[in-house]
Amino acid sequence: MLAMACSENDSTTEPETQNKVALLQVDFLTNTFEGGKELSFPEANGFTISSVYHSPGDFGDIALKYKEVNQPLFAGTIHWMGTGARQFPDTIDAAPNFATIQNAVAIPALSDFKTVNYDEFAYYPENIDYAQLWNAIDNLKVVEQYRAANPTAKVNLYLYTPSVGVGNPAEWDWIIILKN
Q1: Distance between CA atoms of 72 and 10, rounded to whole angstroms?
Q2: Are strands 4-5 and 71-80 parallel, antiparallel or unpaired?
Q3: Fewer CB under 10 Å: which end of the chain, C or N?
Q4: What pTM was computed for the model?
Q5: Which of 180, 157, 177 is nearest to 73 (CA)?
Q6: How far apart are CA 92 and CA 17, in angstroms?
Q7: CA angle 79, 82, 85 (to 5 degrees)
Q8: Alpha-carbon distance 35 to 41, whole Å?
Q9: Do 79 and 57 contact (CB within 8 A), yes or no?
Q10: pLDDT at 8 over 80
Q11: CA–CA separation, 89 vs 24, rounded Å?
Q12: What are the φ/ψ torsions at residue 150 (nearest 5 degrees)?
């Protein structure tokens, strides 16, 4: 998997950095790993996820940013009685493109999981099955590398719901955000 600059420029034109974030997409209903993207950023002290959220009266959107460097992590549209789409990153690498390991990475303590609270009415299931979510990604080499490099980092969870109102949960995805 290639490291991509957050602007998604060709990584051969960007200097390689050590400050990276992995976005890993897991299907909401099946807890199946669908793919992801590794983003590279300028060096920074700290890692805070900020957000800009426009509630979908008919059409809304959300943008998550790496606050310390003011650069995008994720963006997508949200439709009331329809289906929005991810806008950033514009593509993700398919699940088969991710190297795997034989021994699963141990699940972090439940206190190490953190939902991205982008709005006072942000929707998250009352009971999140952290073990099932972790099982979807625990055999990925990128997870092993990030947890080894930053074992005390939070495992940030964002539930992207591009359809709301009578939204279709089959269209929803967990975005697991790991910082190296």
Answers
A1: 16
A2: unpaired
A3: N
A4: 0.88
A5: 177
A6: 20
A7: 60
A8: 20
A9: no
A10: no
A11: 12
A12: -145, 70
Give, rounded to a whole angstrom, the gap between the first and last alpha carbons of the chain.
15
Q: Count up the domains in the chain and report the number.
A: 1
Average pLDDT over residues 38-65: 94
Rounded to an integer, what distance in angstroms lies between the CA atom of residue 21 and that of residue 149? 12
Nearest one of 146, 157, 117, 151 to 31, comparing CA atoms = 157
Within 9-132, strands assigned E span 19-27, 33-41, 49-54, 59-66, 71-80, 86-88, 93-94, 113-115
Alpha carbon of residue 78 to chain centroid: 16
- The residue type at 175: I
Cα–Cα distance between 38 and 89 in angstroms, integer? 10
Instruction: Tell me which residue range forms the domain holding 136.
Output: 4-179
Contact 136, 159 (CB under 8 A): no
pLDDT digits (tens, 9 = 90+) for 73-110: 999 999 988 899 999 999 999 999 999 999 999 999 99
Q: What is the pLDDT of residue 16?
A: 47
CA pseudo-torsion sign 133, 168, 95, 20: negative
Helix (H, G, I), strand (E, B) or coil at 155: strand
